[in-house]
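User: Predict the complex.
Assistant: Input components as received:
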Amino acid sequence: MYSAIVFLPLLGALVAGLFGRVIGVRAAQLITSSFLVISALLSWVAFIQVGLHSHATLVPLFTWIDSGTFEVDWSLRIDTLTAVMLVVVTSVSSLVHIYSIGYMSHDPHQQRFFAYLSLFTFAMLTLVTANNFVQLFFGWEGVGLASYLLIGFWYEKPSACAAAIKAFVVNRVGDFGLILGIATIFLMFGSVDFDTVFKAVPAMAGKNFIFLGHEVSVITTICLLLFMGAMGKSAQFLLHTWLPDAMEGPTPVSALIHAATMVTAGVFLVARMSPIFDHSQAALTFVTIIGATTAIFAATVGLVQNDIKRVIAYSTCSQLGYMFVALGVGAYEAAMFHLFTHAFFKALLFLGSGSVIHAMDGEQDMRKMGGIARLIPFTWVMMTIGTLALTGFPFTAGYFSKDAIIASALVGTNPAHMYGYAMTLIAALLTSFYSWRLMFLTFHGKPRASHEVMHHVHESPLVMLVPLAILAVGALAAGIVFEHWFIGEGRQAFWMGAIFHGGDDILHKIHHLPAAIEYLPTLMMAIGFVVSWIFYIRRPDLPKALAASQEPIYLFLLNKWYFDELYNFLFVRPAFWIGRLLWKGGDGRIIDGFGPDGVSARVLDLSRGIVKLQSGYLYHYAFAMLLGVAGLVTYFMFLGVH
Amino acid sequence: MEYKLATLPALGPAFPEIILAVGSLALLMYGAFNKSNTARQVSIGAVILQMIALVVVAVQPLGRMETFGGMFVSDDFSRLIKILILLGSSTAIIMSIGYIRHEKMERFEFPVLITLATLGMLMMVSANGLISLYMGLELQSLALYVIAAFNRDNVRSSEAGLKYFVLGALSSGMLLYGMSMVYGFTGSTEFDAIAHVLGQGRPSLGVIFGLVFIMAGLAFKVSAVPFHMWTPDVYEGSPTPVTALFAGAPKVAAMALILRVLFGAFPAIEPEWQQIVVFISIASMVLGAFAAIGQTNIKRLMAYSSIGHMGFALVGLAAGSADGIKGVIIYMTIYLVTNVGVFCCILSMRRNDRSVESISDLAGLSRSQPVTAFLFAMIMFSLAGVPPLAGFFGKLYVFLAAIHSGLYTLAVIGVVSSVVGAFYYLRVVKVMYFDEPAEPFDQPMRTELGILLGISGLFTIFFFAWPGPVVRAAELAAAALLH
């Protein structure tokens, strides 16, 4: 069963990818989607078995690499953590597959699209089922590749290609850290198997090794390197620049990869590595700081963006920051819980926005929308549910998971926990503001689109609406149903040691906070809503006036804190400069000049010279012969005889 | 003494030569006393005559036989080389039949002269003394001078003949000068006697000088650098079948003669002649490779190609071992067969009933005559030494021998220059396959040319599958030479 979960998507991808032309569009859609649905249903079965009935297991498949002391097996590690991820990945993926049947119906390359989607799912599943670092890395790179292919799916668009390359390159930076981390683990522990490494961690804690004359803690180094990989994949502060650009891909891709699954791989990684991270206070502090910074940074940028998908992208970035704050303060379960609920409502928001874009004839700029709530009521309802869940409206999914994170940050013990608390609390307000801003700008107020577009606004086909409805159910109910298991009283029975815990139990503490503090995030949410309402419904002229009066701040936010410009200046342009230097100077002038071109030019020169010797005059020829004899005779005269 | 003079020497070992001598005179008479143009009959007669000689050579008993007072020797080495020479010159006659008719130079003397040249070559190969060596060499050369200028109404042909003659005379002079020095310092013209004397102690500088002059004269015949200068002009100016002949049989004969002289008469001073051979070998390979790049005329290209190939063959000689001799013989065999194919193609380069000789005329041959183009391309690849074609194995044997003898520099230079040389062979292929088609050649190719090209091409392609006979024969010959 577990093998089927993982390999059915691969089978679908191979069939649709290699035989797509033969079997046709409809067959490719049906095969990949139905395989994914089966995989999703099996995942839920697995979730119930493993999570609720405590049947964690390990499915060995075959030996992959066996070279000296380096041994890597393919096997599926099925514990609660994996089961949660399986459910998230396959559920969202299957819904996205179904949704795409409608959304992509006018695209000429649908087989390829579905093949990529399934391939991505397979890679993601190998990542979450990995039982060793190499298999994990395989999945890690696999999702990176699939993400690259899907962002650049419309490859005739230059911006899509650029975005794909950017995503890939920025991810490489993180992957580099991950590789180094894995290498360090193999160096220090002599194994890449999870259980072996985890067992050896306590003995390694507190040990140092010398690097460039400095003594550095082994565990902290490993954690920071692994976290670098997580930062890249999860678009954390400093390595976040690729995520907003990745919105160039088709919207279902954004929903699947850049909201629900791949970007959460970093969170999963840290949670999976909790036995290692828990031994390094320094690393956890760093995780908290980065997470909190990302949460507030992305939220501020989200305030002023005008592209509907970019707003949601920054929101994703911000929410991932929340998860890392939770990880940093040791509330791994809360992070996983938020990951779980976030997948539902963020996928819902993305697919909902896809429905809006579909209705608006491809328009993504919110300034050209407005007043379409009555025209597409179903989508409006879905988006409202998603927004409520995201902002943490009481008893929706986000309310349980997000508030748990904020509370965990408050009671956490690492040095940065108060920073994390403050940032996540403020970010909650901002989240509420920009989410409702999105709703108001898109659905309410006066229509700002052209008459023609407004005339065409229509509800999406059923095949797109049904996935929305299912996700909406998840967005509403996932929190209230699963809170007990993920972070409530049932958590020990549920996780069964899949997540490691050292000392104090954060989650226990958060249930004993004063009521006033417990309601603070909800209050923030309410304030955000009200401000947003005033700004965009009551006094629509206010935002412009505010932007005009605070222009520097506005521009700073609008330009995403100038990170792209900074990176362009710091890395991209020097890289291009070095590249051009090596290309024109190194390769063109030196290697080609002295190598192939130079050699061939010299050969031709020599050839011309020799041909000139052949003058056609008899006495020249005779002279050459005599010269030859004279030369040889002279040679022997001087060298003598042996 | 009286008794000896009165007795005829044993004629058996020289039987093939006697057949050729008598036969060619008979053909000459037939042509001279016949009123009508008998060139065609005489040509066919010459081919038949050479085939008879070939059969006689082939059925001669194995082992070494000397006659004419030890001046003439017949052994396994000479027999193998004679077979190659007879094959080379008879194919040249066959190739010329159509050509001399087209070019209005159809005279019966032509095949007769080739036969006489062939006779000279056979005698060179069997020479076991300086005198018989010179006699064979001159018989060959004189006939070839005439043939080079055979198209006497053509300025270029006359020029070619004249240049060849003057420079040939110079080289003969050097050869004779060297011989006289060797005779002076050793007191004998017999190879065995010279070898015996030189084996006694330290050789004098005079013998070395003599050797240098002899080598100069012989290197001229194989057109090794720096005695090669005649080659491009003569190849280009001579009628094409004559060029085909020059590129084939005489080269084999001269190379065999060098082997015979060096291993027969001068084995004791191997270190000295090895230096000479290494020098002319390197010079030939390098010049052949570089100079050919600048050529546009395919016959001139083949001239430089043959200079280069002689350089490669000399690599085997420089090794100075049985392996090296084997390598030289295999190399020359493959070279001879490949050359037949090349010149069959060149001979069929006719457009509007006129010969064309520019490489660019081959453009688009792959489309108008795909089979010819394919075989020609394979032959070119073989000349460049691309595995698994025959030419690769030729180079492999000589380079292996050089490396076994510790001549690494020579081997490396050889490989490098064969890479440079590959350029112009591949360019011919490129012109045939990738250039815009020129006007197609006159069709169809003459039957005899087609057959010869087919044999040559198939040999080139399938040599790797069945190299045994050639290699074994070369081994036998090498052993016989070192006796």
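The first helix of chain B runs from residue 2 to 6.
Let me know if you want any component modeled separately.
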